[in-house]
């Protein structure tokens, strides 16, 4: 079998039959003493426009903040066909393609212009250059999604936590929803989305909430942590990290490499107002404290049995048939079911008091984000 070097040596005399520019000649034969032609059979002058193409690519990056990038290219079929025909005739194999050489050359030029590094695995910015059939050039850029750890507090009652998807784009972001992907902004999610988009210049943020609350609930203290993933952000290192609107206060705590694949563990301190169908007596308060502190609450969640530990309990009678519970428990405990006993949850307040009790409202006092049983971030 003839090796690659021998094949190229055999092909050199025949290459004289083709007019090739310096780049296309080197791509076929490596180093050669032959002078390059002004006109090129393969690229038709494309490599003579490298500086022009690099400038177009650079202009596409101007609105983005990034440290690393990757250049991709889309070429018409004709250059590939001409190069394939030449290589088939001259039996040239295993050489770099015209597309790879073009993107490599553009990457080198862009590194010098932007003083940023090329990254082939996980770039901050991907630049795509499209060469048309008639030599027209288009360049676009898109940023890798930005992952954020955030918190929000809700100081006023009345706002729901979540919003529905935009009926037109179904969450992808469009002109109707101003890029949020949401059906209106009258929610915690809508307010947070609007401000995070403003901070990052991105669109259609997706949220991973650590717990939920009612429309009538407050979220106090340092707020509820959550993850946000923003599409096509223009800013990767936001300078402004806090916002406040309509009783919602938010903060970007940290920029992450990515949103964790697994559900984060967290503990929640909740104040629960309860109303029962009979008068509350002192023994009821004692029984709740004794029975619930350290208990494992078991309930069905998505056809699986879930277990949440109740770490501490405080109870206080506030009216003839009303009391307030303050509990510290694992995140994910369904508060209303925990009080009323619906949908099978044991223990629950109603069964312990042998009364029909209901949660009239509950407020989130504190949420601690955990990792392997340790506090990860409570800033």
TrEMBL record:
Keyword annotations from UniProtKB, A to Z: Isomerase, tRNA processing
Pus10 THUMP domain mapped to chain residues: 54-127
Keyword Isomerase tagged: yes
A biological-process GO annotation: tRNA pseudouridine synthesis
Record EC number: 5.4.99.25
EC main group: isomerase
Statement: the UniProt record of this protein carries the keyword Transcription: no
PANTHER family cross-referenced by the UniProt entry: TRNA PSEUDOURIDINE SYNTHASE PUS10
Protein name in the entry: tRNA pseudouridine(55) synthase
């Amino acid at each position: 079998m003839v090796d690659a070097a021998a094949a190229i040596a055999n092909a050199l005399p025949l290459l004289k039959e083709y007019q090739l520019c310096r780049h296309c000649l080197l791509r076929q034969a490596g180093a050669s003493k032959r002078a390059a032609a002004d006109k090129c059979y393969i690229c038709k002058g494309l490599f003579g426009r490298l500086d022009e193409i690099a400038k177009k690519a650079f202009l596409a990056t101007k609105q983005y903040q990034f440290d690393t990038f990757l250049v991709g290219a889309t070429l018409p079929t004709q250059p590939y066909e001409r190069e394939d025909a030449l290589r088939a005739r001259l039996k040239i194999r295993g050489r770099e393609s015209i597309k790879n050489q073009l993107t490599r050359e553009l990457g080198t030029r862009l590194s010098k212009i932007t003083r940023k590094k090329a990254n082939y695995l996980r770039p901050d910015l991907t630049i795509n250059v499209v060469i048309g059939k008639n030599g027209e050039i288009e360049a676009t850029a898109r940023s890798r999604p930005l992952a954020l750890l955030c918190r929000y507090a809700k100081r006023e009652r009345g706002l729901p936590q979540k919003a529905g998807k935009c009926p037109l784009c179904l969450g992808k972001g469009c002109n109707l929803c101003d890029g949020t992907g949401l059906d209106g902004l009258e929610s915690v999610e809508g307010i947070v989305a609007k401000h995070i988009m403003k901070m990052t210049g991105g669109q259609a943020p997706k949220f991973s909430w650590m717990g939920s609350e009612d429309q009538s609930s407050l979220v106090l203290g340092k707020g509820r942590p959550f993850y946000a993933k923003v599409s096509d952000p223009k800013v990767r290192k936001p300078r402004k990290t806090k916002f406040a609107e309509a009783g919602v206060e938010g903060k970007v705590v940290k920029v992450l490499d990515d949103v964790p694949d697994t559900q984060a563990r967290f503990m929640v301190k909740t104040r629960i107002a309860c109303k029962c169908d009979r008068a509350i007596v002192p023994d009821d308060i004692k029984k709740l404290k004794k029975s619930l502190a350290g208990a494992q609450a078991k309930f069905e969640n998505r056809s699986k049995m879930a277990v949440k530990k109740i770490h501490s309990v405080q109870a206080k009678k506030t009216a003839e048939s009303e009391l307030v519970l303050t509990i510290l428990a694992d995140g994910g405990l369904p508060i209303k079911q925990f009080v009323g006993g619906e949908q099978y949850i044991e223990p629950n307040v109603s069964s312990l008091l042998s009364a029909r009790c209901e949660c009239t409202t509950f407020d989130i006092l504190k949420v601690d984000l955990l990792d392997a049983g340790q506090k990860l971030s409570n800033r």
